[in-house]
């Protein structure tokens, strides 16, 4: 399978390509504070872009290419969406999820499911064939989504989320990513509360999506920082970012995320890299920061990884 490990922030900062040893996989903890897990969601969120539908065979073929990048986690579909997507997840879990990278790492295979028993059971039936299966279960937490899409109150959502995480656990899944859909437009206090509850229920990763790509970089960075500072039990889980590019600011958002994670952009990145708009005569000096501690953090389909890995994974979503 893959020919190289994932990259570390030190590598990005130095612009080197020397493989950084991948730490052992523990669902809710990354033993090396300088290591950042990469989740590729081309086959799930990428495929949800209008007009981007793939057959299960095409998804399997693409999954065979994606693993060559050495990504840690692959989000491969939405099994409840269709029989074919169920098949795609199952086939990828069986083949790719039982393979091994050259460094001995077995990639995590994941898929999404709404916070209800049917979706979770269906998703588990599809993904459980992988050696390292993960479920991403999500529910909307913003007022607009809860009122008009879910037609549920905050209290109901707060009751459902931990209950469904426990349900997923009861099926035998010990790697559960909980996503607060539309987190960017959600009430902060509510986020701290629901995240605290799903951690207690057994979630191993918290996923904080800017679902409609609405946030400016400083706002997204502040959201992550606030969640880190205020969520009970946050040190027992991994934080996952998930930026959409609807306003064309996913790269900029990622740069802010960069500040909190200590994961730095390669200097030659077009437009935003340290070398952009700088010439050799030496009059433009650009400072470069040393990474902070980045324990328990990973990034997901961020645009500068799309540059590193040549994955195009930008999607347009219908707005609620
Ligand atoms: C379901 C979640 C993870 C999502 O894709 C989003 O909110 O953008």
TrEMBL record:
Location of the Pyruvate carboxyltransferase domain: 36-315
Keyword Lyase in annotation: no
Keywords, in A-Z order: Transferase
CDD domains assigned to the protein according to its UniProt record, in alphabetical order: DRE_TIM_IPMS
Gene3D superfamilies reported in the protein's UniProt record: Aldolase class I
Family that this chain belongs to: Belongs to the alpha-IPM synthase/homocitrate synthase family.
Name assigned to this protein: Putative transferase
Source species of the chain: Lupinus albus (White lupine)
Lineage, top ranks: Eukaryota, Viridiplantae, Streptophyta, Embryophyta, Tracheophyta
